[in-house]
Design brief:
Layout lengths: L21 E6 L11 E6 L7 E8 L4 H11 L3 E8 L1 H13 L6 E4 L17 H7 L1 H4 L2 H5 L2 E2 L10 E2 L2 E5 L2 E6 L10 H13 L3 E4 L6 H13 L2 H9 L9 H15 L12 H9 L3 E7 L3 H8 L3 E4 L12 E2 L2 E6 L6 H10 L3 H9 L15 H15 L3 E2 L10 H12 L5 H16 L2
Parallel strand pairs: 3-4, 3-5, 10-11, 13-15
Antiparallel strand pairs: 1-2, 5-14, 6-7, 8-14, 9-11, 9-12
Helix pairs in contact: 7-9, 9-16, 15-16
Amino acid sequence: MHMTRPARRAALAALSVTAAVALTACAGAGSSSGGNTAQKIDVLTTISKDPVTLTLAYTNDPPTKALIDGFTKRHPNVTIKPQMTPFNDYIKSIKLAMSGDAAPDIAQYNPGAMNSLVPAGLILDLGPWAKAYGWTTKFPPASIEVLSSDKAAKQFGTGSLYAVPGGLSVLGVFYNKKIVKEAPKTLAEFEAAMQKAKDAGQTPLANGALQVGGFHLWNALLNVTGDINDYRGWVYGKPGSTIETPAAKQATQTLIDWAKKGYISKGASATADADALAAFSKGGSAFLITGNWAASTLETEMKDDVGFFLMPTASGEPAKVASGASVAYAISAKSKNPNVAAAFLDYLSSPEAAKIEFDGGFMPVDTKAELGATGLRGEIATVFASVAQNNGIVPFPDFASPGMIDKLTPGIQGLINDKMTADAFLKSLQESWDAHHGS
């Protein structure tokens, strides 16, 4: 899910309730095996004062509890009980939990790892609430596109909306200001800075290729060499899409070349993301490619000696594309209080929630919220807002198929260790895509 990191505490905030809107709609997930048939629900944007208890299942430590506190302070008649499960166990158990009689009302949702919930009919089509609340204007388009799919959950960006984001992320480059005096403006300047660090006996780029760090590096390169529409179509499962493109080969070959030049930290294939982060924070490298979720840790460890930029383009034009994802939440098809659950989802887009999301280590859903951020997180907020408001946030590549991460991680290790060619790597990714979506 890419966003399970430390520093998840936030201030309490109040909710501004929207005016009442009511419409009768057939809200449901369908009649597939395991879920409810489409149930008729009177969709409301106000909730009653009667006592209501919801359960919310989530994984690891996004700012879920702080968001719950903000919502329930405004609605003291509502109790939301959080249920936290570690990521690996959560992914394995969530379908069983959602199909049981005691299914949580709200569940953290990842469209890549948990898309089986849609065809099983276990989560609600949120279209009626999206219309009632105006979610298409409250949530950034790219953030809800990937949470929309056809009923088979094979193609994103189409069909119905099944979840909404409760915190966003952006992938970029952190740099040590003691080693690199100014953020590179072009890809060539970035390579020159890594070469300079190497010549000085320093590690140019820390990387945790044992986990997601390796393909984050590859993805960041692809963002500035490829076509956003081609890449987004491939991740979304658009028929006929392919990752075996000249742009993807260029990004892959660049990664291979960087490894051969000694720019990537030694032993990266056996290094976890947390260890790469720790090495960088202690001054062990000039650069680290990861997401904004690392900012709190790096600010604490490095103070003013750390900066952030998006992977630079070859031309020096400001980057218009960056990978990111969201902590997203869906509503169970078995929930007895879907309107209350939907009110919580709407709260995630509020200015008050934006502060909680940002303080919790994420970029806010309200990309225009005034955050008053300075320092490192101010730098991140500035570049993120520009890209997000221009619909330039794209999903991570492992969203492209359920088994894609099992091709990406060892594939990048093979590239770094000169055991795999660019063509073989891209072919392996496309084979996983074809197996899921059909060639």
